Amino acid sequence: MELKTNMKLLLLTALLSWSSAQKCPGIFFNYRCHEVEILKNGINNIHQLVLNENENTLYFTFEQIASPPSRGLGYFNIDDESAGVIDGVRNATGVAIDKRRNRIYVGGSDGLYFLHENKLPEKLPVQDSIQYLFYKDYVYYINNRREAYKFDYGMVVRLPELQGQYVDQIIVDDDNNIFFLQDRNLFRVKMGTRAINSHERYTVNLITTDNNYKPYMCATSGVYVYNKYKYALDRVANIVDLREMTFNRQGEPIYVVVDNIVKLNYNPIPYIP
């Protein structure tokens, strides 16, 4: 078993690294060298992934083997490696975290929920069938009609910046930019305006933010961050086709490769540009 795990680590490193062995004997991400660690394997088709740092636990939605197919809500504690499935949300398709209040939000076919400390879900007054969630000051969600809303102190509000737009994913960054995906095409609009900008040269699978709401775009050509001074994307790794990614407090990425949850651990070796 140990040999099989080591071989998998070597394979992941070989496939995902874009720096030579002389420069970084692992994976180069965000101008730092990292070593690969597989946290958990065998999870089918993870849809969204967040980290609750207070308990060092990953929460994720995934595809359950059932007929008809449905999505469930799972968790994995990085410290003790305990894992399980949380019941009570039908067809869980979205998960997000309010880190300030230590609250996990979950979206499903019957609307929006939050988890109590004992991981029991409680329903909130949102009736939409939710497909995607994001949290920054408010809960942002995409429904099954691909419309963008926010849940604001018990009120559901359609995002005026995205009126008339179909949306698959949405994030809000540290500079009040709204990024959204539409059929894997990336767009950007400043909050409070309707002037939508396109980053049309990129085919993007995933948009996410780190703990400081710095925006990351995982595309078919690598991982990028948005440079607000150049109004452009800067590549920080050439790990391609990532579907889900989150970050810990140290800025180390945790992401999904096939059915594996992988963590990059910072390796403080000198970087040779």
UniProtKB/TrEMBL annotation:
Presence of the UniProt keyword Signal in the record: yes
Position of the signal peptide: 1-21
Keywords: Signal
SUPFAM superfamilies on file: Calcium-dependent phosphotriesterase (SSF63829)
Official protein name in the record: Ommochrome-binding protein
Lineage, opening ranks: Eukaryota, Metazoa, Ecdysozoa, Arthropoda, Hexapoda
